[in-house]
Structure formats: structure tokens, C-alpha cells
Amino acid sequence: MVKGAIQKLIEQVAKEHDLPERIVEKALKNAIAIAIKKDKKIGDELEVDFTDEGIKVYVIRKKGNKKIKFPLDISPEDVNRIAAWAAKEEFLREIEKAEQERGFLEFKELEGEVVYGIVRKVLENGDVIVDLGRIDSILPRREQLPGEQYKTGDKVKALLLEVKKVRGEPLLILSRTHPNFLRKLIEHEVPEIQEGLIEIKSVARIPGERAKVAVDSKEMKMDPVGIVVGLKGMRIQRVSEELGGEKIDVIRWSDDIAELIRRALAPSHPQKIKLFTYEKRAEVAVPEEELSLAIGKRGINVKLASKLTGWHIDVLSTKDFEKLEELRQKQNERQDSEA
To answer: Hey, what domains does the chain have and what are their CATH numbers?
Structure first.
């Protein structure tokens, strides 16, 4: 096997697998080195070169901070025999690794974007292996919406949450529960966001149940809520359907935190808001008949409002709010008189 023949093999494999020739050459060298180490039970690092005279193998050893290279004591016949076997066995594994590496680098750039795939396997623990084309990913059970069921062959749309390596192997994690998945779905659905006319300022979700989204526009005359919701609610409805019917409230953003909290607690109508800036906490008074509306079933409405605004929110009836204010006032008066 001479350099010309090896080059033809490299070119052929590169074309078949749509890989750069340098990657294929490196994979073939690695495959031969691994095969020789296994056959000869060598623990040292090996380096393989392709020359006109044949395949040359070198042992690499460290001496201080330097690497020393010297020829391996092996016959050309042994090298060719092992290389021929490696080209059939180890080479395929190395090519697969090269394809994975390319896929890893390509998808690393897509981290945080929405991707599409097909379910390849559903594991016993509920995690789903999703084929993204060049590489597999995993949709963990914790990142799936409540009640979702998958089977082999199902199409999947999800956020590419994280792309990393674990023990040298690529690991791509998908999510359908992350707030940014909802953000991206709305961005794709609303051209005005892509054009920069409308901005999503904050997103809060309780996956599969309810979400709140705060939006704003650069032009005061523009109605960002109406544009995001769409004619007859069609735009937000399509997003909701992708999320299994998750109810999505869209409100207009405000830089005035009290006003933002007021809007975030819709559909209730807060009457008074007291801010405790250093605690990032707010006490909100609502009519007695709207108390359960403001808090929401299982506290969902106030939880989402807190997530959306970044403030802890205590909801009280107007009557209790006023009583608490009176108590504080009396306490302050007592402290002033004692001083």
C-alpha cells in the first residue's frame, strides 16, 4: 500500500461521507495506530505517516517538556497486514467519530436555537433519543411537557438547550420546558419580532399549564400585545398548540415596576401596590372577590407574575392590605415617641 493508493482511498471515503480529506486522513492514521497498539500490545503513543515508500510508524515518548519520535521496530509486512485490517474495522469507527465531531461543532453554533429531529429510541426512564440528522441528541424526561408520549419515528421540535462533551463524547440536550423555547416559538411566529419592531422582554412558564410573556415596541403607537397575539388570537394559538395547549398570557412591558406588577397579575385588577425595593418585594392589594383570581389555581398566577417581573409578590385583599398599613403606621409612631 503506497501513498497514491492511500490517497485514493481517502478521497473516496471523504466523498462518500461528505467529510474533508484531512479529517479522513487523520481518522485512517488513528485507526492504523490503534490497530498496531492492540496487535503488538504497545502502551506508548504512536504516530503514522504515509510516504511513497509505504506506511511509517513512530513511537512518541515524552522527555521533560519535549516529545521524542523514533521508528517503531515492525516489519513492512506486519504494518501492511495490520493496516489492511484497520482500514476495514477501526477506520469505520474513526470515521463515525469524525462525523460526530463535525456534527458536534455544527450544533454547538445552534445552541439556544430550535431544532427538529425524529425519535430514534425511547428509553425505559422516559428519556428520548432524537436523531438530528448528523448526530443524536437526548430529550430528558424532565425537559418534556407533562403528559407527552413519544414513540419511534415521531417528529420532535425542541430547544437545543446545551451542547457539550462528556468523557470525550458529544452530548446534546433538548428541552421543551425551558422559557427560551416559548420565546423562540413566538419569535418564529411573529415577523415583527424578527424585524426588530417588537421585543420580548421577559418570559415565565409553568410548562404545559400556563405562561406569561411581556413584550414591548419601539413605537408607542404600535400595539405589541395585539401583534403578538395575532388576528383572532391565531399567532399565539399556534404556539400554544405546539406546547400541548399551554395557556399564554401576553402583556405589555413597563419600566415602572409597579405598573409591570399590576399588568403581570392580570386578569385581576390590583388597587394598591407597595414596593420594598431593597427586598425586591411587593405587597399588592386586590378586591376581596378577585383574591383567588390574582393568586390563581395552586398559586400559578402569582408565581408566574413573580417570575416575569423578578420580584416576590404578596397578594392581599384590600381590607388586609389597609390593616397591615395601619399596623405599620402605629408601630412607626410608637418608635418615634420612644425615640
So the answer is: 3-104 (3.30.1480.10), 116-175 (2.40.50.140), 178-253 (3.30.300.20), 256-339 (3.30.300.20)
